[in-house]
C-alpha cells in the first residue's frame, strides 16, 4: 500500500443543508515516517456565470460563497516534525453558511462546493485529496404552478410559464 490521504464526512452522503455544520475526518496513511510542516483543509463554495451577448461581448462573474482554511496539524519545531508511519485521523468541522445556494450545473454557469486536504511533505510531492460536496435547497413552502402563473398574470407580466418541477 502507498501513502494516501482521504476525506470522510460523518454524513456519508456528502449532502448538507445551509446553516448546518459539516464534520468529518482527514485520514492519512503513511508507509514510512514523513517530515511535514502541516496538514491543511480548505472548504469552499463558488458561483460562476459566463455568457456572450448578442453583440459578441463576453460577460462573466465569479463569486466566492465561502472559503475556509483550517490547519489540522502543524509542526512544533523547526517548521518540520516527523509523523510516524501508520494511520492518522484528523477531525474537522465547518459551517455551511445559511445563505448558500444549492449546487447547480448549467449551460451558462454553476454553483460548486469543494473540500481539499493537503499534507505538506518535505522534499517530496504533497499528499492531496479533493472531493465535491453538495448543498441542498430547502423550500419552506412548496411552489405551486398555479400560484406562480396567477402572480405573473396579475402583475401584468405576459410570459409563458412552463411546469418543470
UniProtKB/TrEMBL annotation:
SUPFAM superfamilies: E set domains
InterPro entries, A to Z: Arrestin-like_C (IPR014752), Arrestin-like_N (IPR011021), Arrestin_domain-protein (IPR050357), Ig_E-set (IPR014756)
GO biological process, one term: protein transport
Annotated Gene Ontology cellular component terms: cytoplasm
Domain Arrestin-like N-terminal: 6-139
Family, per entry: Belongs to the arrestin family.
Membrane-spanning parts: none
Protein known as: Arrestin-like N-terminal domain-containing protein
Protein origin, superkingdom: Eukaryota
Gene3D superfamilies given in the database record: 2.60.40.640
